[in-house]
Amino acid sequence: MPSADASQRHATGKLLLVEDEMTLAGPVMRGLEEEGYVVDLAQDGVGGEAQALSETYDVLIIDWRLPRMDGRTLIERLRKQGCTQPILMLTALRDIDHKVAGLDAGADDYLTKPFSFEELLARLRALLRRIPLAAHVSADLQPVHLHVGPLEMDTARRLVSYGQTSLHLRTKEYRLLELLLRHQGEVFSRSVIAEHIWGSIYDVTDNAIDVTVSGLRQKLTAAARANPKTAYDAVTVSTVRGVGYYLHVSSVSNNPPETQP
Questions:
Q1: Which residue(s) pair with 249 in the sheet?
Q2: Residues 143, 64 share a domain
Q3: 66 assigned to some structural domain
Q4: Cα–Cα–Cα angle for 27, 30, 33, nearest 5°?
Q5: Which of 138, 227, 231, 255 lies at 20 to 30 Å from 12 by C-alpha?
Q6: Residue 256 located in a structural domain
Q7: How many folded domains does the chain comprise?
């Protein structure tokens, strides 16, 4: 593992590594500590869950294949229990279905084994950039209950409902909705959205942002149609062309909002 001269070390952050293969975990821990990180280790899924919920970490690094509880299940359980820290999943599984399953479970990024230490550091830096930005934008990491019209979000339990309908959102959709809910009526540019949700304006394409916005809009529209008798206003994500996106509430009573182009 590469080491840094003490005068060059600038990395800060507390990490939890959940990995049972000590031939990997040992060198990774030493390398990260040489870079200035504080690193705790858990060697199975059950221990990882207990450790993640009992301490405060900046990033969680979780292997897919773990004893007692696999990494995908661990991530799902942590998200349901209100864990909002960025999660990097490690996996030896290269097929796209496993990568998608890990992201859908709540991971923010994945790294395929074997990986270079420099790439691990780069991924961690990207994830850690989200933390000061979130604090700057809105001190977002505090659990609260958010709502507008029929739309409600419990950030402590990561639950979202629209009238009587529960919304099942992908991780990026959830984060976008939370950002817009915390700043109702405020327009966010693509760059701010990219940095807030993906960690960098360089690590995301315009198409990825479009897909996330479109997916959230579709789910809001479907929920509005599933609650036609509510007296609530309709809620959707609107576009200010050339500027960005904001959460729009329209007084249309029984008419669901139309998806923006």
A1: 235
A2: no
A3: yes
A4: 150
A5: 138
A6: no
A7: 2
